[in-house]
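note to self: dont lose this again. the chain is below, predicted strucutre after it. 261 aa total, dont forget to put it in the shared folder this time
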Amino acid sequence: MSRSGLGDRLLHGYTWLIIIWLSSPIAVMILFGFNDKQSKSNTSWQGFTLKWYAQLFEISDLTVALRNSLLIAVISTVVTVVIGTMLGLALGRHRFRGKGATNFLVFAAISTPELVMGASLLSLFVSGNVPRATATIIISHVLFSLSFVVVTVRARIVTLDPSLEEAARDLGATAWGTFRQVTLPSIMPGVMAGAMLSFALSIDDYVVTSFVNGSTVTFPLWIVGAVKTGIPAQVNVMGTLIFGIGVLIAVVNAIAVRRRD
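---
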């Protein structure tokens, strides 16, 4: 075997090891959603069962926490996508005073540790006498996920051919018509990628949420609070369903992008 062939095999093996390592926590979560556990500890396999899927919403506090997380994630994603798309278009297509500073702030928000962002947002809300509740969580999630949408949309817009929009306007399309029929369909893969990333960041956030939640309990906060008494199997089932829906949306989006291209 040549050195290049051996190197390729080692690289492939290493890649698969990384994939298995990254996927193992998800696999364990899915597996233990079917565990017929008899005690508070859900760390040992005691038999296969589907009863936890039937009893998914049996724990009322957990159900409320999941509902809060989904509501916050949906609202913050919609707001983030609208604002982030407009900002991404501005940064990718136009020149204006302060563009360099705006670009810097976008990437600074991505690199800022969640601990720092959570503490600063808490200080802002306390200084402004803003009561911490669901609204402050939504505002916080919009702020820390906005940069990710801006970056994905901006990356998509800079690769587009401006002559397509110019041709639409030359043919009589209005500015809104050009955006709706030419620009938006072209940048939709970036918009969808940003939306999925924003939703994922929101629904699993713990650090920032713990600073600004007040009395509102989200899914991650509930899980951390339940560690001392034992994580119920319903948590694994809910996590499995969220993961499965996310994978399904990603696959559908990838297929739609391939057909469009």
